[in-house]
Predict the 3D structure of the following.
Amino acid sequence: MENIRVRFAPSPTGYLHVGGLRTALYNYLFARKNNGKFILRIEDTDRSRYVEGAVENLIASLKWCGLDYDEGPDIGGDYGPYMQSQRLDIYKQHAEELIKKGHAYYCFCSPERLAALREEQSRLKVPQIKYDKHCLKLSPQEVQNKIENGEPYVIRLNVPANQTVRFYDIIRGDVEFDTNIIDDQILIKSDGYPTYHLANVVDDHLMKISHVIRGEEWLSSTPKHVLLYDYFGWEKPQFAHLPLLLNPDRSKLSKRQGDVAVEEYRAKGYLKEALINFVALLGWNAGDDREFYYLNELIEKFSLEGVNKSGAVFDLNKLIWLNGEHIRKKTVDELLPLLKDELKKSKYASNNFSDEYLKLVISAMQERIDFVHEIITKSYYFFERPTSYEEKAIQKNWKPETTEHLKLLIETFEKLNNPTKEDYENALNSVAEKLQINKGKLIHPLRLALSGTSAGPGIFDLLYILGKEEVIIRIKNAIQSLA
Ligand code: GLU
């Protein structure tokens, strides 16, 4: 494929939605796979929905995910500006061109007239509530006079009756719409800003977009766009409408059901690798049941033909599982800065743990967590002495004779010099033998003394990581509290 140019065209309404991330990702993958260009365009023509800081937020989320674009508002490019609010003259000129060609017209109807019209149409139960082309009857002179008198107006698309608009969608195949259900769409609003439909088509054309890849919710807008392409005499891009994202109960994914913003997932400790991997699988597969992917592998495998038509269910448990999988595949050195970030946010922020120590903790915990912050919550005992001892474990494993056993263990450990894991193991074995008891009788209370819990990494890892001095202090503390 040649000259592939695709775009992600979000409206800056606050944050990057996971659905938006999916759209951005598929555009990105398609561009990278086909040596094309990936463009970021900000569709900020709806001033009532504009949110301060939203553009910066979107850009930060895309960057965090690693979806770098080739052209965009902050980096420029040959087809800018990439903010629609900076292109108002372009849209106006194009709307005027359509008026000249008879495909658009000025409309001066008041909000009151439009409301009355809608009310009347719904009372009559007409199949489609639509504008009645009232202002199409105005003569050029009447239009001129009204404009000169400063009457507010909009510009509308003149949609013909009784026609069929046809287009091909890469995911859905042939699509048809009857023009009778299409309203005379406003192209330029009374505030002089274009609507999404006009701005989107004009920009996709001027920015030489080859493929429009976007959410299914825009499918019903596409016939209006197709009419616009035809009226301008422009070649259409190819269309691909991505399946809806659904909650597990198959309702449309919404904020009410949980987090939808990329930054919320980031704040909760999801890795960008896991989020990208998860989002890629929301409606696409490579034709097999593989689930674990890195971004570069997705680029290699992605195709629009692999995108499904049916809605994709957002399964949070799968995302959690993938997060754990990506953590397990990382090296300890890669995880170290992530753990340090989490520590900075925790109550241990002012403690100073050496990198060497933290790396040992990571290796002991890496297989046991789905989130990096679980290293801190699940095994807080690596960062402070146990503050309490698990009641159930005390009852099960702390026997009257335990104190004597542990005292003997302390004596034996004290004799060790810079002990390795094996040294601890040998020492513990020798004590068990001397006492003629099963090793478990020592290991369980020892674990409880060291960590306050009954689960965690292997006991010899625990001993080695904590170090001899700390181990002895903790055993003594436990004897004091539990004996
Ligand atoms: N501005 C639209 C949105 O926010 C873009 C839709 C499209 O890609 O055409 O999703």
About this structure: The chain is about 45% helix and 10% strand. The mean pLDDT is 96. The CA atoms of residues 193 and 275 lie 36 Å apart. Residues 9-11, 43, 196, 200, 214, 218 surround glutamic acid (CB under 6 Å).
